[in-house]
């Protein structure tokens, strides 16, 4: 699904979903001991450990479906029917677990397609899933996969714009990823390793110029966050 489908998504979802997500966002004021003692954190650590020990990519896909996506969809449906339903811990660990799954596919299996597949599935389950699942860290994993897997400048540009449009914070990590991409493109030896001259075309030259502008934007955003 193209990124433009989700432009200003936060403006069209139910306000209660936005509030739910915001209330669950971590801040520096949260007592870390309370977090570590919570039920959802225990669920997160246990699930993370299981995923890290899976050695076959298809088994990891099956585990993600049964232990993350299915419980999330079931909880979402039940909460719409019964507001008093007990919350499944996957609700609060949703984006953390999916980011970890993406990282495993990218680093352990070099499976960049699966990283993108997870990202698109998060979006396909509706606005609630997008708001709760597509965190800054999830986007950063997708950006990295797009570069490592395909050197896809245009999609990287789209993702960075999508983050801004949907008020998803472009973090210091986002800046570091973009800096690495720009450095790679400026490296003559790196360019010679490519199978074709895609980066030397006029269109990609223009794209690189736009990425430099976005880099400056994110630098300013990160600086403001650190004030």
From TrEMBL:
Signal peptide: none
Limits of the Mtf2-like C-terminal domain: 45-217
One cellular component (GO) term of this entry: mitochondrion
Pfam families in UniProt: Mtf2 (PF19189)
Domain of life assignment: Eukaryota
Record InterPro entries: Mtf2-like_C, Mtf2/C5D6.12-like
Name of the featured protein: Mtf2-like C-terminal domain-containing protein
Organism annotation: Pneumocystis jirovecii (strain RU7) (Human pneumocystis pneumonia agent)
């Amino acid at each position: 699904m193209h990124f433009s489908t989700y432009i200003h998504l936060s403006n069209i979802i139910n306000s209660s979903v936005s509030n739910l997500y915001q209330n669950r966002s971590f801040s520096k004021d949260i007592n870390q001991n309370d977090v570590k003692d919570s039920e959802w954190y225990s669920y997160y650590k246990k699930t993370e450990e299981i995923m890290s020990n899976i050695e076959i990519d298809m088994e990891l896909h099956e585990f993600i479906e049964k232990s993350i996506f299915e419980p999330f969809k079931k909880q979402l449906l039940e909460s719409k029917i019964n507001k008093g339903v007990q919350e499944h811990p996957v609700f609060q660990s949703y984006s953390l677990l999916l980011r970890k799954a993406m990282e495993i596919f990218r680093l352990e299996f070099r499976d960049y397609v699966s990283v993108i597949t997870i990202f698109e599935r998060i979006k396909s389950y509706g606005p609630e899933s997008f708001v709760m699942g597509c965190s800054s860290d999830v986007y950063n994993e997708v950006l990295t996969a797009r570069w490592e897997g395909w050197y896809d400048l245009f999609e990287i540009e789209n993702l960075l714009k999508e983050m801004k449009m949907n008020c998803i914070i472009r973090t210091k990590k986002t800046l570091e990823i973009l800096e690495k991409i720009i450095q790679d493109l400026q490296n003559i030896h790196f360019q010679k390793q490519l199978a074709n001259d895609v980066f030397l075309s006029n269109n990609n030259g223009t794209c690189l110029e736009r990425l430099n502008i976005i880099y400056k934007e994110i630098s300013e955003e990160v600086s403001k966050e650190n004030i």
